[in-house]
Design brief:
Length: about 260
Amino acid sequence: MKDLFSLSGRTALITGGSRGIGKMIARGFIAHGAKVYISSRKAPACQETAEELSKEGVCIALPEDVSTIAGCEALAKAYGAHEDKLDILVNNAGAAWLATFDEFPEKGWDKVLDLNVKSPFFLTKALHGALKAAASPEKPAKVINITSIDGIRPNPQETYSYHASKAGLIHLTRRMAAELIKDDIVVSSLAPGAFASDMNIVARDHGEEVSRRIPARRIGADEDMAGAAIFLASRAGDYVVGSTLTVDGGVAFANVGGG
């Protein structure tokens, strides 16, 4: 029981790992003993974060744009040049688009759906062999999709494609889980609420105001996100298959006022 949350000896790959939620998860994994690879579209930022986190453990930069199938396959190939198996894949890279209903453009759908829904599927597919190589009934491999509470309930912002993409990824998580558990690969998802990041600039820049609408009366801290991800990635989360864990201070399910 004392090693229930240990990630010692495990290898993880985190997309969108250079900042925000991806960086929070990477730091938590490293603290619990994992060897972590981070990927992001911007190579300098990816390398800078890897150098920073390497002071705390093993962190290696693999910059790649996973918004296309070719990019997903390129990242899988780059990872394969370093490792022949993968214990934990975190599909975190994502995008959002804000525009009014009458002005919302097609490119605001294509960019968001491609990165938020297609990429998790095709990157997992490209890394299926590496995940299977690490997996066993006693120690399953893990795929953790980062969804959002916006896929569970609407928020006031007109982010139509983002809402739809995260709802789709939550359901895709269930379908992938049903298939990949046959290979001893456990698929689940984390649905964050308000965490300060470059994507959630409202929480980043107006945290005190946002906190008033959260039952827990605060926005999420780095430890909240890291803790939830460590739970799912470790032995503690082996029996959590296809589920979406909300990490939102109660906004989605404990908010009488509706948020």
